[in-house]
Amino acid sequence: MLLCGIIDELNEENSGHQPIYFFCQATDSDLSSASAILRGILYLLLKRKPQLVKDLRETYDYCDRRLFESRNGWETLCDMIISVLANESFQNAVIVIDALDECITGVDRLLDFIHLLSSKAVRVIVSSRNWPTIERGIAAAAQKAAHVSLELNEQSVSAAVVAFIEHKVNQLAQKHEYSAAKRDLVHSTLVKNSHSTFLWAALVCQQLADNNTNDWEVESKLAEFPPGLDVLYTRMLHHALSSNDVQLIRRILAVASVVFRPVDIAEMRSLLGPLGTLVNDARSLEKAVRQCGSFLTIRNNTVYFVHQSAKDFLLDHPANEKVMLGGSNCEHGLIWMHSLQVMSTTLLRNIYLLDTPGTFIGDVRTPIPDPLAPVRYSCIHWINHFCTASCIEQHQIGHMEYFFAHCFLHWIEAICLMGSVYEGVESMKKLSSALKVCTARFSKLTSLVEDALRFLQQYRYVIEKAPLQIYLSVLLFSPRTSLARRLYLREVPVWIAIKPLVKEEDWDTCIQVFGHHDQCQTLMFSPEGNFLASTSLDDMKLWDAKTGQCLRTIRPSNGRLGQVKFFCDGLIVAAVVGNFQCNLWSVKTGCCLHTLQYHSGKINSIALSPNGRNLVMGSEDTIVTLWNIETGKCLLTLNGHSSPAVAVAFSPDGCTFASAAAPIKIWHTETGDCLQNMQPNVNFRLASILYTPEGCQIRSISWKRRDASRVRETRIGLWEISTGQCLTEIKIPATDFVESGAEGTSFSLSPHNGGIIASQSSEKTIKAWLLRTGKLLTETLHPYRIAGLSISSDGEHIAIVSDQGTVRFQQRTNLRHQKKGHEILFLHPPQYTGSDMTDSFYGRGVLSTGPVQSVNFSIDGQKAISVRQGQLIVDV
């Protein structure tokens, strides 16, 4: 309300620079995310100056049509807004963001963006509850800004509420023809009972505005509205539950209270279960929603709470027992069960009636009416409700087993059509984790879910590009023992007369494949293993290691990327840029937070302190430097080495750090004193160092070259810091290790589980060793030439870079030799005659599982000839 008045004042004062504004609302997913806020601001900016649209077309046309709904589009949205604001017509523009605390998704990166805007020629006005997280996030920008605390200006707020009541009462008096005495009675009662609360006054005025309220009923009506919001909500709830349709009203309120986003009318009806049959059409359900005692409202066909406090009341107040008879957890259980039921009856194969199974997702148009409309919410959130429900009955598990055995592929098709594949992967992982802690009586369901998760992870890329391929190529090339393959092989079209012979018996160790447009150079897991950073020549991609989703792409403008390191909390990533600079970026927002410039020599290695305050660099000019990240100042310059410092590392407590050249030196973080020297064999070149988790020992890797590209022998030493003595040394033969070159990293250390090193022993072979004993744990033959690798901090997963521009995410345990993966063809029925065959293949039910060496089409496009394993094959 306050910001509405400010906006009106700004409009009147400066007609040439009307403010751009956005009102956040936690109960609406379209109004509660950082991306939505930026989309709204960008829309209003371009609406104000439509001639600027053409300047952005190049960026927008180049990107996917779903750019503005994608999490990857954040950086582009920021760049677009900054570009538009740079136009002289927006000098001294005003941007207003109301209720920042109601931004549920991405508030951290929004705060970073507000901080960025504070350095531009634009004024930003924000309002928020005084939450510590908001205050900390906006502190830097607020240092040079004026801020007002409403708690400290109670008198001004109270006066504003009185003015609002005056305005609303005048409207009521005019509408209902109040006498002067009645008008004064209403005004004085509202001022007395509102307790300076806008919402209370607005809700009561809404009730008094009802056309069914007679003049002689006004006084008694006023008496029904007790002062205070909670008391008012209690009265409203009692009134709603006095209806003849109390069961329906109770279910509507319960569903609205526990759903993870506001649902539309069609979705609400689906979630009501059997009670949904009482409201057979949208009009009937809208009428029922309006009977919910002013708790709910309908906007744009979607059901919302009138205010966040109304939802909080139903969830937290003791009165909620009248709505959710079994508690909120029980309501979650009802919703996931009703979701399964409605999905089982609604979802079908090829629900959008696409012309061909090779139709790409970019060519799909949502039909009107949309057959997925009633189940869109259920498809995304049913697993979230299952995991939140407190108790699970055996008969409910039977329903879920049926769903995975009969409807799983239809569900995958649906979430692909909705553009929510990554959400599906994330939900399946959550379900898998939840079932693992259950008793053995759920073993059948656990097996179904585990196989379904591998199925979805393995073929995610194919499915999200062409959803109907899930019934063709994906099924045909799945491992023979896959439960999904065995249960759904009936879905394969009859026009495929001869099915391919699949050699793979079971799922291999590759969990999922990440893709780069350019060749991937380096890899790094975050400490908790949640994120993976990969770099190519000119960009860095940050991946969600659980789902395989590329969260964002960072493109430095000033040089090629080098070594990458995560902060201990995994929220900041640092990388060497252009040999002489180190940049630090926020993982959540992709914004560059700090830049550290080193002018003396090429930076070979970097390490971050556990507290996130300092960074140490080892450089080619033999110098080791310690930096304060916040200020960008160099704290220590250490000249103790006579050869390039190839590696650096911080101790777990951050009190010391180590540098590797010749010898290994231990330095005091505060004073820069050299505390210890450890001298490896002078005939071996140091390559890497790592503190043990206890911080009292250091592991080192060094090697002796056979020639420019091969290693004769590698040694892994364990050093006692207090004495400087080498306690043990493991020797790895030349056949089991290669030296890293310019293209990637040939080894990666994991400090936990006894210490594990993953090493590249040839162009295509990976071996994992237990450092404590020198025992070879696992070995795998990779299908493509290896360009680099990284092992997760727990030693359980290995990310492998291939020269094909992909990153394979594999489990370390039980690695076995992997055969070269064959390309999965997008299959079409014989009658398909589309002209664009660039990414497609068709045939007469004749499929080959061998690697295709070359392929060509006849001039008329009706025949294809291919060379496979030395044979010429003509496909018609």
Automatic annotation (TrEMBL):
InterPro entries assigned? NPHP3-like_N, WD40/YVTN_repeat-like_dom_sf, WD40_repeat_CS, WD40_repeat_dom_sf, WD40_rpt
Transferase among the record's keywords? no
SUPFAM superfamilies, sorted: WD40 repeat-like
Ranges for the WD repeats: 596-637
CDD domains from the UniProt entry: WD40 (cd00200)
Task: Write down the PROSITE patterns for this protein, in alphabetical order.
Answer: WD_REPEATS_1, WD_REPEATS_2, WD_REPEATS_REGION
Alphabetic keyword roster: Repeat, WD repeat
Tell me the domain of life.
Eukaryota
Domain spans labelled Nephrocystin 3-like N-terminal:
2-129
Q: What is this protein called?
A: Vegetative incompatibility protein het-e-1
Protein's organism: Colletotrichum chrysophilum
